[in-house]
């Protein structure tokens, strides 16, 4: 399907009716069927059916009001939760989204400005984005069908905020994580973009290493890095650079729970190396498993410092304390007992804890391997953490969720 298939006026009511009528049908069967001529593009209608379930979770308030150009667009677009967070990072009265895509980020971020520009090189995506913005009554967005590199190179406009989400695939469709390997190459574009805005927001790969990202940017660029998790899953890494270059090089962890409630904590990246590890000689009354955003941050010493808790081991990424840390962003467990990892314990543990939820951290076996060795089954209210303690002994921590 190309732009010519949808450029002409077509019956959106019939289009919507087709989607609702076949919403629960098998998508592969629908695509194989030879349809008589319809007053709308059938392939596009079937695409809506294919993505509706996913979008109802990802974009609950928008899924019935927008048209999705492709299944890939639905997979790659931001969720409402993460797009709404980015909305709060926008400054000023003007915005440019250099990699418009499906337009979800543009739609949310444009709510805070007087004027927005959506730049996208795919004409089909531009056409559908225009239709969606009109349907959503977002009338302050100008659609520009252009390559973002060419656009930045030729535009005379200056924006308060520019956002870019480069493609993280190489020519063989393999995943890339470095900013320089993305398309476009963000590092090469950095200065031209900064010359056109007061604030630049870059979306990086969630697989990227935070320290490596700073090395790519160079010592002369100061940036805050925001790590956004949703339901304990790392969803986005956002690099925020302001034109005054006065950032504190902060790492901001943003944790959004299943109810949409957000907890934010901030660390100083520059002091992480200067801090010492707070290691505990023993497992104390409580253990803590940090949220995915905290783990991704790599601010392990800062976490100990800020929350007054100790690490079990330099590489275990579990923490412990004698008194309960009520505000810790992650899961907390009350320790029932601590056992050495030995053959004797492994043979008898299933008798006492036939059901338990196993997690391994800095341990020679995977959780699946350990479950088989112990002979236990998943479930129940007992949690077993297999890990390594400060003196390099392997231990099993039995706990109950706090």
Explain this structure to me?
- This protein is of the alpha/beta class.
- The protein folds into 3 domains: 4-58, no CATH class; 76-271, Vaccinia Virus protein VP39 (Rossmann fold); 286-401.
- Helix content is 31%, strand content 25%.
- It has 15 helices and 16 strands.
- The strands form 2 sheets. Strands 3-2-1-4-5-7-6-8-9 form a 9-stranded mixed β-sheet, with helices on both faces. The protein has a 7-stranded mixed β-sheet with strand order 11-12-10-13-16-15-14.
- Helix 2 packs across helix 4 (42-58).
- The longest helix is centred in the first third of the chain and has 17 residues, at 42-58.
- The N and C termini lie far apart (53 Å).
- 38% of the residues are buried.
Could you give a quick summary of the protein structure above?
With 402 residues, the protein is α/β, with parallel strands linked by helices. The protein folds into three domains: 55 residues, no CATH class; 196 residues, Rossmann fold (3-Layer(aba) Sandwich), CATH 3.40.50; 116 residues. Helices cover 31% and strands 25% of the residues.
